[in-house]
Amino acid sequence: MKPSLDHEIDSDPVWDLVDQVPRIEPSPTFVEDTLRRARLADRTSSPWWDSLPFSKPVLGAAAACCAVAIILICLKSGSTDTSPPFTEIPETEIIELEDVIATELLIAAADDPDLMSDAELLSLLF
Predict the structure, then answer these.
(1) Of 22, 75, 84, 91, which residue has the fewest beta carbons closer than 10 angstroms?
(2) What CA–CA distance (Å, rounded) separates 29 from 36?
(3) Helix axis angle, 118-125 relative to 91-111, nearest 10°?
(4) Could you tell me which residues come within 8 angstroms of residue 54 by beta carbon, excluding any fewer than 6 positions away?
């Protein structure tokens, strides 16, 4: 016959240790303190912008005005240089650069033949 579950729990040594622990009585204001903490935990804090003295539309308009002012200041302080942003490269340098690129591509194709297709190699050669 199996011993009952109650008998197993009663014979557990942990319960002997629990019985040896001195009993601690709660303070007389335990209930009030617990209820006050529960009430305070329920309160949610409002976001920081709700504490400002202005309404949201007024703040939005002020931010938009500041953004427009910053954009206007940046546009006014732009350079008045009318020169083109780049200079023309002479035709001879372009031809030399194309030759160097084609040579490098042929060297790469000689090192690894699978790098380019036959059509690409023919367009480099002719």
Answers:
(1) 22
(2) 11
(3) 140
(4) 62
Closest C-alpha among 100, 119, 103, 122 to residue 111? 103
SS3 call for 96: helix
- Residue 91's H or E segment, with its range, is helix 91-111
Contact 124, 106 (CB under 8 A): yes
Residue with tokens 């190699």: 121
Domain boundaries, the chain: 97-125
Q: What pLDDT, in 10s, does the model give residues 15-67?
A: 888 888 888 888 999 999 999 988 888 777 777 767 777 777 887 888 999 99
d(CA 3, CA 11): 11
Q: Is the pTM of this model over 0.85?
A: no
Residue 23 contacts by C-beta under 8 Å, 6 or more apart in sequence?
A: none
Residue 1 is predicted with a pLDDT of 46
Secondary structure percentages of the chain, helix, strand, coil, to 5: 65, 0, 35
